[in-house]
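Minutes, project check-in

Agenda point 3 was the complex the collaborators sent over. CS summarized: two entities, 601 residues total, and the question is how they sit relative to each other. Sequences were read into the notes so everyone works from the same version.
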Amino acid sequence: MLDTQPEGYVTADGRKIGGVLMEMKNITLRFGGVVAIKDISFDIREGEIRAIIGPNGAGKSSMLNVISGFYHPQEGEVWYKGERRPRMRPYEVARQGIARTFQNIALFEGMSVLDNIMTGRLNHMSAGFFKQALWWGPAAKEEAENREKVEKIIDFLEIQHIRKTPVRRLPYGLKKRVELARALSAEPSILLLDEPMAGMNVEEKEDMSRFILDVNDEFGSTIVLIEHDMGVVMDLSDRVVVMDYGKKIGDGSPGEVRNNEEVIKAYLGVSHD
Amino acid sequence: MPDTMLFAMEAALNGLTAGVMYALVALGFVLIFKASGIFNFSQGVMALFAALTLVGLQSGQVPFAHLINAIFGTRIHYFGWTLPTLVAIAGTVAVMVAFAWLVERYIFRHLVNQEPIILFMATIGLAYFLEGLGDVMWGAEVKRLDVGIPQGMSGTVDDLTFAWFGYGFYMDTLELWAALIAGVLVLSLILFSQYTKQGRALRAVADDHQAALSVGISLRFIWVLVWSMAGIVALVAGMMWGAKSGVQFSLSLIALKALPVLILGGFTSIPGAIVGGLIIGVGERLFDFFLGPIIGGATENWFAYMLALVFLLFRPQGLFGEKIIERV
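CS then shared the predicted structure for the full assembly.
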């Protein structure tokens, strides 16, 4: 099925979707003999919420790791902001404005919530090594400015009450939210969320969905998310890529994907009446 | 006040300053272990190498002089100048930073994702290499290092304590200075890691490599940074020990004294390294003072290791180390 949404449109709830920000072209990723991703192409447009769904082991997380530079595909190209992206290390990708969260949460457990989120701003701090070390005027000023931005995000995600708490002590749901805050504080062009709602209860899921929508709305962030929960995906996303056994079997708006027979067969189950 | 108490106090105070020196060596280990999980066996040799380089630069020695003379039949040994101490220290810092860069570039970059034991073995190799390099570069003879810190009994301490207790304590001026310098070094390390961008990145890497990558931190840069810091700590340690007992190859053995300190304080804790060093310093002096005469003296040689053994039995993670809890 071809994706039928035109470039540059306005959604039903009035958000502007721009042109193509990133394009995956014929990506193939192998681990030894195992093919995790088989010749997949899709694009990500500015300002949209793009979901990648599929059963366990479909290659969704691998795809996210390709986007964020943790894996390097054997074949295919990644195009970002109109240019082909050369092979890059994860930190270089991050510096290009692609922030991510992890399925199994990768926070700095020993550091406070505030410090964790401040690490997201590292690439917005330019004062040189020696100025930093000596806490020279401009460095102190820069720290204050970045701190202000971080405080805004903390307010936005409603985690003021745990600002100074070491992350290790937080419950799971809050950790997920702190991780989102850290990714967000980098003011990324693309925000990658790897199962942001995995392991959450209904209430936490609702909160997280609301935050994701608000983030998209308020900051205009382009969001790519992987999710198991079909209900959540259909409500949240503008367009959905469906994967199964490393192949793309569907791509389009939630409505289109829902009615795609192959998708129903592979993912939603076939009815036996 | 009875004399025994005064003597014990004197021993304890001297133990504190000695403990600072131990802590200084242990600190180098902790920095690298925390950031990269590598137990750097070569830390002691780094202290030796830094001290050799410092003396060499200061006295205008020609590096690799013996090698050059052997090959070209020349007879050069000295450039014929002496550098001011501060310039020589700056030069040595530059050498240690270059060393850190080389170690990352030519050793650890190729060992990413290897088992900790492999990395450990690499540092053993590095230790022997560096010891040999130090020998070839600067020669093997014992050298005197004078960094301008006065040595011998501190008159101030003697006068003060005599006025208070009627008995003057003997303390070495050099050790007092060493304690002061170590204190400043530790304080600046703590401030650096708590309040700067690079310090924050350093703590982030120490905590979680993957997450650090995802926020755009270059692990390579952090490794070079942390090895440079360990190199500078090694320089300070080598400088102090070298000034005290001459720059000689047995200097690298001070690393052995750092092991019990690490076991006491925990391998991942900077405050642990300091407290552990102080406990060992004071503990071995007091133990020797009270029990030494009874069991035949020379207890300083083994007390630290015995204490470490006891700790391994009852608190293997050390005083401040992270307890490893496996979640089932």
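Noted in discussion: Chain B has one domain: 3-314.
Follow-up: revisit at the next meeting once the mutant set is ready.
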